[in-house]
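Worked example 3 (structure in, sequence out).
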């Protein structure tokens, strides 16, 4: 398989993760744990609205990823968001995390995939 095709597959994979977390889990609220996390960290009174807004922002991230506009900036922002979000959640709501302490491992793996996509695969694609 060519690097160009690998890149496309990885970008779709990354986009799907953001889409599922944003639309299915947060906008449709099919995974109430996300709203519980927001309620505990930010504000219980506006947890639904904040969770919905985060979901919308994640959908915007999907559009940005698929547009390929300033993809390195997008990748760096994704990594920063994922790392900071997971550290905050680990500190404040570890009991609500799907995998507990292992969440940070999965988050790190996802960050690695994002980095690999834009800083390794995409570079090979244009060489």
């Amino acid at each position: 398989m060519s690097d160009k095709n690998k890149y496309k597959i990885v970008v779709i994979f990354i986009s799907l993760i953001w889409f599922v977390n944003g639309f299915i889990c947060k906008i449709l609220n099919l995974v109430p744990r996300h709203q519980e996390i927001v309620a505990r960290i930010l504000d219980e009174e506006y947890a639904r609205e904040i969770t919905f807004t985060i979901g919308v922002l994640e959908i915007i991230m999907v559009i940005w990823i698929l547009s390929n506009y300033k993809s390195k900036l997008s990748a760096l922002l994704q990594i920063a968001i994922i790392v900071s979000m997971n550290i905050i959640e680990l500190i404040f709501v570890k009991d609500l995390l799907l995998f507990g302490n292992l969440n940070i491992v999965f988050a790190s793996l996802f960050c690695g995939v994002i980095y690999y996509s834009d800083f390794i695969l995409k570079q090979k694609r244009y060489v």
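Notes: The mean pLDDT is 95. Residues 3-27 form the longest helix (25 residues).
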